[in-house]
Specification:
Elements: H1 20-42, H2 46-63, H3 71-80, H4 89-109, H5 118-128, H6 167-178, H7 186-200, H8 207-221, H9 233-238, H10 240-253, H11 256-294, H12 300-308, E1 314-316, H13 317-324, H14 328-340, E2 345-346, E3 355-357, H15 359-366
Antiparallel strand pairs: 1-3, 2-3
Helix pairs in contact: 1-11, 2-4, 4-5, 4-8, 6-7, 7-8, 7-11, 10-11, 11-15, 12-14, 13-14
Bound molecules: adenosine-5'-triphosphate and magnesium ion.
């Protein structure tokens, strides 16, 4: 089977046809993103909202790859505050996804940071592939060998991406197309760039994760969302077969329209779910805040600790001491008040060094992220 070398974007043979239906779908999807942006702006601290979503994204993003860590594993691990080691390679992978995302967003927001470019994606890739599992995957570097998707060798593969000696040229075209094609709607451009990136398949591994990260970065850079509130992994995971089929059809049949329709559907579905999720979490936090306020024994410190829970839905007393910058007895008293209010639950079953969880919050955050529930 021959390797496939794509033409530069935008598609010309055949050209992309944005008909009535697609145009309407673009309008609806843009509207959905505006609602999501608004939902993000309405929550008192967009940070805790993003905290939840970013972690929610990092988990299924790695699960497409077959990593078994769940959201609760990740939060538990973070609550322990230890360094990722080889025993928890799954967790390491999720933390890496998170680091890659945070790194890239930070660069784009800084005036002196890297612009949208292959260099930025390579740097993100280096962070994604750090640690034992990624060591032999050329972290941060474009591949130097022929790869293939599906099958045991190029001859029986589902898809053979371009040969390594063509990558420099293809990626410089790709980089140019990040900043070109401005006559197309930005959502369409994002969809085209994702499929092109997957077709070029520049890395030995992690192409899917970096290609999805790219979409998040584009939506923010192009002003479609003012915060990184949209993560497509959940949708691609749920519709994996169709996702792969649509990617393949672009290459085999030039079916750009079918891909774009699928991509828009993914964006609008996930945006809608994120709006619902935001509303749900917002309502829960408001109701629980009331409970904390009317609980006998509640203190100002307890109320302050409560506001920190969305960013620390699993925590130990030692963490509370640190967050509140107070003494152990005061922090313990605040934790006890939150337990009495029915907000926190003890989950470690230990006498010392106990862990507590904001279970109702986690339950809502967890929907769709855990394979081993
Ligand atoms: N037929 C295909 N044509 C083009 N790209 C494909 C095809 N099938 C799969 N892909 C892409 O390859 C990605 C997987 O590549 P790779 O293993 O390098 O990335 P990953 O980040 O490790 O995996 P994952 O996307 O599963 O998390 C898929 O996410 C998809 O985007
Ligand atoms: Mg992989």
């Amino acid at each position: 089977m021959a390797a496939f070398v794509p033409f530069p974007l935008p598609p010309t043979e055949p050209p992309l046809e944005i008909g009535e239906l697609l145009r309407e779908q673009i309008r609806v999807t843009e509207e959905g993103l505006r609602r999501l942006d608004l939902a993000g702006a309405m929550v008192p601290s967009v940070d805790w909202f993003i905290y939840g979503f970013v972690r929610k994204e990092a988990v299924p993003s790695s699960q497409i790859e077959g990593t078994q860590a769940t959201l609760v594993d990740l939060l538990n691990f973070e609550a322990e505050g230890t360094e990722a080691s080889s025993e928890n390679a799954d967790i390491r992978e999720v933390c890496n996804s998170l680091e890659a995302l945070e790194f890239a967003l930070d660069q784009l927001r800084r005036p002196d940071g890297l612009p949208l470019s292959m260099r930025l994606l390579n740097e993100a890739h280096a962070r994604l592939m750090q640690g034992a599992r990624g060591a032999d995957k050329l972290p941060g570097e474009v591949r130097r060998s022929q790869n293939w998707i599906g099958g045991t060798r190029p001859g029986n593969a589902a898809f053979v991406p371009p040969p390594p000696h063509r990558l420099a040229e293809l990626l410089s075209d790709f980089e140019r197309s990040l900043h070109a094609g401005r006559d197309l709607p930005p959502l369409v451009r994002a969809g085209l760039l994702h499929v092109q990136f997957e077709t070029i398949h520049p890395y030995l591994d992690g192409n899917g994760r970096i290609g999805r990260l790219l979409v998040t970065l584009l939506l923010e850079s192009w002003g479609l969302l003012s915060a990184p509130l949209l993560y497509l992994s959940l949708y691609f995971k749920r519709h994996r077969d169709e996702y792969y089929r649509r990617l393949a059809a672009v290459r085999a049949e030039g079916d750009w329209e079918g891909w774009i329709a699928f991509f828009l559907k993914a964006v609008s579905t996930i945006a809608e779910e994120a709006v619902e999720s935001a509303r749900d979490l917002f309502a829960l936090v408001n109701a629980d805040r009331q409970r904390v306020l009317v609980t006998p024994g509640s203190t100002v410190i307890a109320a302050r600790l409560f506001e920190m829970l969305p960013q620390h839905p699993i925590l130990r007393i030692a963490t509370a001491v640190e967050l509140l910058d107070t003494t152990r007895p005061t922090a313990t008293k605040a934790m006890t008040a939150l337990v009495d209010a029915g907000v926190l639950q003890e989950i470690s079953g230990k006498k010392r060094d106990r862990s507590y969880s904001y279970t109702a919050y986690l339950e809502r955050l967890k929907v769709g992220t855990g394979l081993r529930e």
